[in-house]
Amino acid sequence: MPSNKQLRQVVVVGAGVAGTMAAQTLRAEGYDGELTLVGAERYAAYHRPALSKKLLTGEVYRAGIDMAPQNEFEVRALRGVSAVGLDMASRTVQLREGADERTMPFDGLVIASGADVRPWPGGSVPDGVMPLRTVDDCLAIRSKLGRRTRVVVVGGGFIGTEVAASLRSLGLTVTLVSREDALLQSALGEEMGSCWTDLHRRHGVDVHLGVAVESLVGDGHVKAVRLSDGLKLKADLVLFGLGVEPATGWLRGSGIPVDKGVVCDATGAVEGVPGVVAAGDVARWWHPLYQEHLRIEHWDQASRQGVTVARTLLAGPGNAEEYDAVPYFWSDQYDVKLQLVGVPTGHDNVEVVEGSVREGEFVAAYGKNGRTIAVLSTIPGRVNDYRGVIADAAAFPPRLNAKADSTTST
């Protein structure tokens, strides 16, 4: 097992925000050995949240979403190269670039391979049916947009709702289809998710809930979408956001523990595998506050985990610090900024503790077993005042001050 002094060859698999932050932190905190950053995409790290927002609408150019390096650091960056295997006995990563394969040795490994978009079920699709996960996806979608383009968005999660909002802001005809009874239901619950259902309908999106896509209509190019309730929706473009799966296929047979993501302790160290850490969408970390393993697909989380795993490698076994920060997430849709601290999964209660849902400015708290586990707000920055409440597992509902006590009914 390499200690911090023995660490001389570090390979970072994944050149997104988690991998890039890990590499930057290693250099910033004194690591002077070999450092290789392996990225399947041909681009340097970029801000993925912009893909469904400003890059999609054309408000920013392609270069405008690149992550600006916090500092210049020496790294061997391999672009357009995929990790296809891992051998822990020889401590090597198998890489593929086109038809060429090679192995790369390591004594420290950062697994930050991210997640892969779930494909359209049923195999091949007509032209004009597209996902949104990468820069190339976004640019391809933009190339197909015209003034009269009729777009059907399939999936009522954050990607689907953000894409719908962005395209609606361009004046396009947008239909949004979700299997659930409210938009964002899996993330926020039905009660709070209904707020965003109403928001999209107010902005002219044709929202269909509780239905699935039965078939795609079109010979060569999509012309319509047929729903499970028999309704047929005309479409020039179908964009789908059906979620993602952690990119762990290259780890098969390696001995790395995978259970809905790479299983890590609270420091980002892969459980039972010395000298290997994982961060970002691929990783499922133990969270001391929630007392369970969590895989969180948030930009902020990926960035912070990247920093943490670099420090874990440098600290060596038994010396790393646990990461127990309260998770944070945001989503911009129309003129509303959704901000969420904590993890509402499994909540058994939700209550508006400030403001009014009817007026569009509110704070809602999620409770579980009498404790506050998450807070959602449309008031910019207000969620920051509740971080301590969640970290301390305060009683539900939380009360910060007199303002919070004067709750207005929804």
From TrEMBL:
<dbReference type="Pfam" id="PF07992">
    <property type="entry name" value="Pyr_redox_2"/>
</dbReference>
<dbReference type="Pfam" id="PF14759">
    <property type="entry name" value="Reductase_C"/>
</dbReference>
<dbReference type="InterPro" id="IPR036188">
    <property type="entry name" value="FAD/NAD-bd_sf"/>
</dbReference>
<keyword id="KW-0274">FAD</keyword>
<dbReference type="InterPro" id="IPR050446">
    <property type="entry name" value="FAD-oxidoreductase/Apoptosis"/>
</dbReference>
<dbReference type="InterPro" id="IPR023753">
    <property type="entry name" value="FAD/NAD-binding_dom"/>
</dbReference>
<keyword id="KW-0560">Oxidoreductase</keyword>
<dbReference type="InterPro" id="IPR028202">
    <property type="entry name" value="Reductase_C"/>
</dbReference>
<protein>
    <submittedName>
        <fullName>NAD(FAD)-dependent dehydrogenase</fullName>
    </submittedName>
</protein>
<dbReference type="GO" id="GO:0016651">
    <property type="term" value="F:oxidoreductase activity, acting on NAD(P)H"/>
</dbReference>
<feature type="domain" description="Reductase C-terminal">
    <location>
        <begin position="328"/>
        <end position="395"/>
    </location>
</feature>
<dbReference type="GO" id="GO:0005737">
    <property type="term" value="C:cytoplasm"/>
</dbReference>
<dbReference type="InterPro" id="IPR016156">
    <property type="entry name" value="FAD/NAD-linked_Rdtase_dimer_sf"/>
</dbReference>
<keyword id="KW-0285">Flavoprotein</keyword>
<feature type="domain" description="FAD/NAD(P)-binding">
    <location>
        <begin position="9"/>
        <end position="306"/>
    </location>
</feature>
